[in-house]
Design a protein that fits this description.
By secondary structure, the protein is mostly helical. It is built from ten helices and no strands. It is flat.
Length: 281
């Protein structure tokens, strides 16, 4: 046998790499679809609704004074965007203020009701009672008591948004595993340490479920207040546009309100993600 027979044949092409398992690519595609679907499906649905709205308005020749087409709303929003952004500043600031106060007030009341049986029996029924009162009926009272400025709108916003925080926080603080609380007592943990180390971490998902509702209620409270007294803000712009039969401007203001509301809601969701990561939930 010659030496040439012992040398490898370098001219022979190497065999191709083994293909991936048949189901691997399919699983990867399914995973990508599962990640995209929560975002793509709502966007696609909204796009279809807007397209249908545009078609109906144009085919039926609906007057703009009754229902403007989405294209007309978009054009009006683009024309008035700088002015509407100026009007959005007081609405946003008052919404954030009302939400912040309702968060502190709601969590504090929930802690007090959880910690004291006397406070629970004295306060919680009254909190529920005030929640059952129609909120809009009380809005003029806040105007009479606090005037037509920002304090009345912020107070009304707090009034309608703190109750979800109280209920959600109270549910979270009282749903802690009883065995875990017994263990805390066995090792000598008492009072505030039990709240910071056990009750609050367990209540984080419940608290943020209430905060997600509260941020929407806070904006509703501010808008209602602006309907009644304000001389600025997106709520005032909606009323002003309605008095001028400017339907496109009304919808443009509503669109901007929706954008601001989604942004504030997203901030709460981000804060929830950080809190859950911090407490390992």
């Amino acid at each position: 046998m010659t030496a040439t027979h012992l040398m490898p044949d370098l001219t022979t092409p190497s065999s191709p790499a083994a293909p991936p398992p048949p189901g691997l690519a399919a699983r990867g595609l399914a995973g990508a679809r599962a990640r995209i679907r929560p975002f793509a499906l709502p966007i696609l649905t909204a796009a279809l609704i807007i397209a249908a709205w545009e078609v109906v308005v144009r085919v039926r020749h609906i007057p703009e004074v009754l229902l403007p087409a989405p294209s007309a709303v978009a054009a009006r929003l683009w024309e008035t965007l700088p002015f509407l952004l100026q009007q959005a500043v007081p609405t946003t600031l008052e919404t954030v203020a009302g939400f912040a106060i309702s968060t502190v007030l709601g969590i504090s009341l929930a802690v007090l009701v959880t910690a004291s049986r006397f406070a629970r029996e004295a306060l919680y029924p009254n909190i529920v009672f005030f929640q059952l009162i129609p909120k809009i009926a009380l809005a003029p009272l806040f105007i009479v008591w606090l005037g037509i400025g920002s304090p009345s709108r912020v107070t009304f916003s707090v009034f309608i948004s703190f109750f979800p925080v109280v209920v959600a926080t109270l549910t979270g603080l009282t749903s802690v595993d009883r065995d875990l609380l017994r263990l805390c007592r066995a090792v000598g943990a008492r009072g505030w340490k039990v709240y910071t180390q056990v009750r609050f971490p367990a209540a984080v998902p419940h608290i943020f479920s209430g905060l997600k509702i509260a941020i929407t209620f806070a904006m509703i409270g501010v808008i209602v207040g602006e309907f009644i007294t304000a001389q600025a803000g997106l709520g005032y712009m909606i009323l002003f546009a309605a008095s001028q039969a400017e339907m496109a401007l009304i919808f443009a203001s509503i669109v901007l309100l929706c954008v601001i509301g989604l942004a504030l809601y997203a901030l709460v969701v981000v804060a929830e993600a950080f809190a859950l990561k911090r407490y390992g939930a």
